[in-house]
Amino acid sequence: MFKTPTLLVLGAGASCDFGYPLATGLRKWILEITEPRSLDRFMNDSDWETAPRNNQEIALGFLHFLFMRENGHGNVVRDLHESLSVSNNETIDRFLRSNPRLAPLGKALIAFGILRCEFDQDHRSPHFLNRKNKLLLSDPSMNWYKRLLTKIQDGCDNPDDLRRNKLSVLTFNYDCSFEAFLQMNRSTAQIFDGVDYEEFIQIKHVYGKVESPPESRVSIQSFYEHCLIESENIRTIGENAPKQSFFSSHSPYADAERVFFMGFGFDTENIDLLRGMDIFESFLSSKEFFALNYDGHLGIQQRVEEAGIEKNNTLSGTRSEPMGVADALDFGFLR
Fold first, then answer.
1. Using one digit for the tens of pLDDT, what is the confidence trace for 106-117?
2. 3-state secondary structure string, the chain?
3. Which of 48, 64, 309, 320 is most open to solvent, judged by the fewest CB atoms within 10 Å of its CB?
């Protein structure tokens, strides 16, 4: 049980163990599927939409779907590729902020790139099969969600005990895998009977979220439609940033006494966003901060220290032996 008010701040590294892309990987993937040779293929072939044969063709099908929605205007896809390929921005989020005309397409591809991780293609028919449960239960040694849930349960004898946990999560990720895992595991122990996960943990997405279709089996066309709809919930760095009122006074976020950054890249603008909230100003002066540096990157360490986190509160891996979130929990990161 979390008896001390605790806040977890999650970045993309917290989801990557479950198959979700890092920001740099998402940028690379978008460049691959929008490169000119692919464009020439998808613009004139409707089969990409209805009968894709592999992951690349599934992505091309989504591009064709978007292409037809725009009445055949493919220039925006070419523009996205050409501009992104020469951009100094390391992530697609930063790039879209500087290129708002390309934002609708870019956000649609972000939503697709995330939600595609949660579905397998049904090769017997033009459908996708929801694989989120398999995704979240694979490789127990890497499943830090499960370890966190165990810590939440420790010392709890009944649902009322569970509700006394003082844990909140502030995530900069778009995926909802953590919520899905909590929802999925409600049936694993009697202590969860009649208890919604929101009663023992508070979760907020800073830049919005994308949720997968609820069905276990969905047509490719419906999946494409869903990705487009969900993309409208995405905000990028610097776009309509949450104001101080994003958090109410005396919220579990404001009251946290310990703050753990996990899988978080310490992007300067995200740190500035956190500094712009009154509660984080108080954190920096009086709260305990802890950070995880996946591979000991010197740039990350510098950003950690600039954010006001003492070096001895940072758990670092190395390039040869990186420290993932699950590994960090083994080393007592959340004790």
1. 999 999 999 988
2. CCCCCEEEEECHHHCHHHCCCCHHHHHHHHHHHCCHHHHHHHCCCCHHHHCCCCHHHHHHHHHHHHHHHCCCCCHHHHHHHHHHHCCCCCCHHHHHHHCHHHHHHHHHHHHHHHHHHHEEEECCCCEEEECHHHHHHCCHHHCHHHHHHHHHHCCCCCHHHHHCCCEEEEECCCCCHHHHHHHHHHHCCHHHCCCCHHHCCEEEECCCCCCCCCCCEEEHHHHHHHHHHHHHHCCCCCCCCCCHHHCCCCCCCCCCCEEEEECCCCCHHHHHHHHCCHHHHHHHHHCEEEEEECCCCHHHHHHHHHCCCCHHHEEECCCCCCCCHHHHHHCCCCC
3. 320
